[in-house]
Amino acid sequence: MKKVSFAEFGGPDVLRLTDAEEPHAGPGRIRIAVRAAGVNPVDWRIREGQVLGAHPVELPAGVGLDAAGVVDEVGEGVEGIEVGDHVFGEGSSTYAEFAVLSAWARMPEGLTYEEAAGYPSVVETALRIVREAGVRPGQTLLVSGASGGVGSAVLQIARDRGITVIGTAGAANQEYLRSLGALATTYGEGWAERVRQLGRVDAALDLAGSGVIRELVELTGDPGKVVSIADLDAPKLGVRFSGVAGSVPDALAEAAALIARGRLHIPVEKSYTLAEAAAAHIDSQAGHTRGRRVIVV
Fold first, then answer.
1. Tens digits of per-residue pLDDT, 34-60?
2. CA end-to-end distance (rounded Å), the chain
3. How many CB atoms lie under 10 A from the CB of residue 21?
């Protein structure tokens, strides 16, 4: 089968499309014929060799955590899923023609594979950090870097829970944030004052790692009310860095329910082939994403 992998840590140029042995579903796992794989910032952070305890790497390594496709192997002990079912979920080395998933759910009706592949890690992360920020219905959550996949999910999950959201993003994505129910403003010089003019901030999330932790702490008045998924130095300022996933099956079930109720939709901004994985990483690292990027197999 075809698979994207890397034999050394480095830039996008270390990615190679190679011929590899097919993986197989062990106990408690399923294998899918991959139709699409989600492109996440964690993918290129792992490729660069950043220290991410939740994702230990042994070289050579595959790339990708999220995928959607058709079940073609069911491991021992797995119940409620059959060969031929259409699923989305999380596993390993998902930039490939076949991948093994450790967590999954049936795809909600009406979703394409490309759309479904963009949800698993994104929604798990969004649900986790909203919980860790401790924000409650009636309060206001500030989201720095709000237009990407996690930000798009956070805005919609918060709205569904009765939380007001202020989102920062580039000028081109202001209307997009408003379409998701957020109060929107641009980042850049003077951004913190623009946020203050929009209202009080009870908690804040740093999704972009753009060096805004000090301002987020000032706006909330409490480092314990700030959570980052992108700035590894955040703990130096007393801010939680959230990098270890919670229950992915629970997150997938909640995502499916929100999608079915029409309360969650994350658009696919751009699709790439397996051979274009390096370009997908370059674009992901550049930021300014609106929604998700996916690999189509």
1. 999 999 988 998 999 986 655 678 899
2. 11
3. 8
Burial class for 8, CB neighbours closer than 10 Å (0-12, 13-18, 19+)? exposed
pLDDT tens digits along 255-276: 999 999 999 999 898 999 999 9
pTM score: 0.89
* C-alpha closest to that of 67 among 19, 32, 111, 28: 32
pLDDT of 129 strictly over 60:
yes
CB 31 within 8 A of CB 99: yes
| Contact status, residue 7 vs residue 67, Cβ threshold 8 Å | no
Whether residue 237 has pLDDT greater than 90: yes
Residue type, 115: E
The two structure tokens encoding residue 57: 């790497």
Residues 6+ apart with CB under 8 A from 56: none
User: Between β-strands 98-106 and 61-62, what pairing exists: parallel, antiparallel or unpaired?
Assistant: unpaired
For 137, the 3-state DSSP assignment is: coil
From CA 279, how far away is CA 15, in angstroms rounded? 10
Q: CB-based contacts of 45: which residues, under 8 Å, 6+ apart? A: 52
